[in-house]
Design a protein that fits this description.
Butyryl-Coa Dehydrogenase, subunit A, domain 1; globular; Butyryl-CoA Dehydrogenase, subunit A, domain 2; 3-stranded antiparallel sheet; 692 residues; 9% strand; Butyryl-CoA Dehydrogenase, subunit A, domain 3; alpha+beta; transit peptide; Acyl-CoA_oxidase_C; Acyl-coenzyme A oxidase
């Protein structure tokens, strides 16, 4: 009351001052003084952290160069092109129809104006192709998927499953977008079970043609990208039916791929024998025109069979270098594994974007603080660090793992070595499944970490989450893919005990299985020193021990249940155990690649930052599954407690270099175009969005 008498003012003046103060405070939260280094903000930290911590000075340029790799030039060219063409940037609010046309115009501009022609890289330089996909997908995920449908799926199927005559006829048209196309594999009743597809391609020897038919509604090709609006051709997967002279009259040769024209090249009208419907509005990726295809006695020339693994002569005789349907099917799918490689790689790109937005916002946003002191950055709260710092460490781990996967895939495309093909198949299945599942969850965590502002569409989490969600399903359902990894591990396990040679990725099992069969060392189980816990050997041994233990135990369970339930029943009984085994193995592979990446980084400060992230990734995973290690006394209680404390400390340490770590991704502003994460004019931009 004394204050009011000494400073009299009207009610309107008082309200105005309060409003002005609140606006100023909000402005400082969203757009603080960017000239002040992040380290000048007061830190909320425990005494132990304060005593032990010394901020690492990171050479950001060296770290960025190490992360970006050899294809940064073409990515920067893509970013520069779209930055120079604001008319080709996707607005926040856009209809399905407009988004589809914009997406096609974006692709045409990229190919015909920017001169980015990806098709030759699909086989000649896959690493460069995936770098293009990552950059394009960060501009608009729909564009990344549409590009993938055109070049990796439609174009890739022609190149990889066809022969010289197909490449000569179609390559240039696919490359310059004259021959826009689809990849028609999935059917209404069959997605993951490709061998169960029902579409038929029956050879007519009189007219030297195949007749493509959809025998029933369940065989309608469904979710086919590029089909609803833009596609002129489709690679159609169908059962090859040949006439025979026996009592059956026909022979089913299994699933093969065929080039089927679906629209007139001049008028763009749907061709006779083809019916096309629109799959409509989706949860995300509405720039991609997914459609449904039905064929009614659609005739195509015999030459339209993509005949690399099996051919039909003029007289109807079938020939193949592969003796069985299963081997031909495996070879066909093996050539299509690049789609999984690309999705794993692209998913890491999405994770980089979302982590960057959330972490930059958390560095800028200030809330609460000690009495009579300035408010502090919300990233200085342990709870926020717990949400975001292991995620940042994981982003780095997955980056190096997918770079390794791309290298192995590129080597496979050059050598076609049989064992390498099998290795890449299982590795791509595991990494695609594991990383896309993690990114899907991480997107929700990032949104929540940004509070109410994270819910604004302009800040991208909603569109990123919706567009990425299907990554868990297409190119192989994640649960199905993990089962493929588990099946391969069991095959390797069996061969190990029969004296066989393990593949490179799986070779650690020989040594760790021997370790598993012995009892844990009671001495090392109690070691709790920081040097020991941060030793890569301890971390990798722990991961490998867990995988070996899971493999041994599930093999015994399967053997037991098979006797009473049969093979299928036993597998289903142990399914969750098998999925856990597959995830454990993939985490082991990821950690091994991260450790190698740390060793191979030559710049000391960058290597030290990577080592922090690697240690956090490893120990956070061990702590999250600490029950497994405690149950078998691999880790004693005192050691478990030490792991927990060190994980919290490492989260804090990674927070001190979080800005440098996200800046090393070098994502341009129009990619991380979330006003809440921008370093300048954030308040002005954000308030303009809502009309101030």
């Amino acid at each position: 009351m004394e204050s009011r008498r000494s400073n009299p003012m009207t009610e309107e003046e008082s309200s105005g001052l309060i409003a002005a103060r609140r606006i100023k405070q909000l402005s400082s939260h969203i757009s603080p003084d960017v000239t002040a280094p992040s380290s000048s903000l007061p830190l909320v930290q425990t005494e132990v952290c304060s005593a032990r911590s010394k901020k690492l000075e990171v050479n950001g340029q060296a770290l960025s160069l190490y992360m970006k790799g050899k294809h940064m030039d073409i990515q920067e060219k893509i970013y520069e092109y779209f930055n120079s063409r604001p008319d080709l940037q996707t607005p926040i609010e856009i209809s399905k129809e407009d988004h589809r046309e914009l997406c096609m115009n974006q692709l045409r501009g990229l190919v015909r104006e920017a001169g980015i022609k990806p098709l030759r890289y699909v086989t000649e330089d896959p690493a460069k192709y995936f770098a293009i996909v990552e950059a394009v997908g960060s501009v608009d995920m729909s564009l990344g998927i549409k590009l993938g449908v055109q070049y990796s799926l439609w174009g890739g199927s022609v190149i990889n499953l066809g022969t010289k005559k197909h490449k000569d006829k179609y390559f240039d048209g696919i490359d310059n977008l004259e021959y826009t196309g689809c990849f028609a594999m999935t059917e209404l009743h069959h997605g993951s079970n490709v061998q169960g597809l029902q579409t038929t391609a029956t050879f007519d020897p009189l007219k030297d043609e195949f007749i493509i038919d959809t025998p029933h509604d369940g065989a309608i090709k469904w979710w086919i990208g590029n089909a609803a609006v833009h596609g002129k051709f489709a690679t159609v997967f169908a059962r090859l039916i040949l006439p025979t002279h026996d009592s059956k009259g026909v022979s089913d040769m299994g699933v093969h791929a065929f080039i089927v024209p679906i629209r007139d090249m001049k008028t763009h009208q749907t061709l006779p024998g083809v019916e096309i419907q629109d799959c409509g509005h989706k949860v995300g990726l509405n720039g991609v025109d997914n459609g449904a295809l039905r064929f009614r006695s659609m005739r195509i020339p015999r030459d339209n069979l993509l005949n690399r693994f099996g051919d039909v002569a003029r007289d109807g005789k079938y020939t193949s270098s592969l003796p069985t349907i299963n081997k031909r099917f495996a070879a066909t799918l093996g050539e299509l594994v690049g789609g999984r490689v690309g999705l794993a790689y692209a998913s890491v790109g999405v994770l980089k974007i979302s982590a960057t937005i959330a972490i930059r916002y958390s560095l800028l946003r200030q809330q609460f603080g000690p009495p009579k002191q300035p408010e502090v950055s919300i990233l200085d709260y342990q709870s926020q660090q717990h949400k975001l710092m292991p995620m940042l460490a994981s982003t780095y781990a997955y980056h190096f793992a997918t770079v390794y996967l791309v290298e192995k895939y590129s080597e496979m495309k050059k050598t076609h070595e049989e064992q390498l093909v099998a290795d890449v198949h299982a590795l791509s299945a595991g990494l695609k499944s594991y990383i896309t599942s993690y990114t899907a969850k991480a997107l929700s965590v990032c949104r929540e970490a940004c509070g109410g502002h994270g819910y604004a569409a302009v800040n991208r989490f909603g569109s990123l989450r919706n567009d990425h969600d299907i990554f868990q399903t297409f190119e192989g359902d994640n649960t199905v893919l993990l089962q493929q990894v588990a099946a391969d591990l069991l095959k390797q396990y069996k061969e190990k005990f029969q004296g066989g040679t393990l593949t490179v990725t799986w070779s650690y099992l020989r040594e760790s299985m021997n370790s598993y069969l012995s009892q844990p060392n009671p001495v090392t189980a109690r070691w709790e020193g920081e040097d020991h816990l941060r030793d890569p050997k301890f971390q990798l041994d722990a991961f490998r021990y867990r995988t070996s233990r899971l493999l041994q135990s599930v093999a015994m369970r399967l053997n037991k249940h098979t006797k009473t339930l049969g093979t299928f029943g036993a597998w289903n009984r142990c399914l969750n155990h098998l999925l856990t085994l597959a995830e454990s193995h993939i985490e082991t592979v990821i950690l091994a690649r991260f450790i190698d990446a740390v060793k191979n980084c030559s710049e000391p400060s960058a290597r030290a930052a990577l080592k922090l992230a690697c240690d956090l990734y490893a120990l956070d995973r061990i702590w999250n599954d600490i029950g497994t290690y405690r149950n078998v006394d691999y880790v004693a209680p005192n050691k478990a407690k030490a792991i927990h404390k060190l994980t919290e400390y490492l989260s804090f340490q990674v927070r001190t270099v979080a800005k440098e770590l996200v800046d090393a991704f070098e994502l341009p502003d129009h990619v991380t175009r979330a006003p809440i994460a921008m370093q300048s004019d954030a308040y002005a931009q954000y308030t303009q969005v809502v009309g101030f």
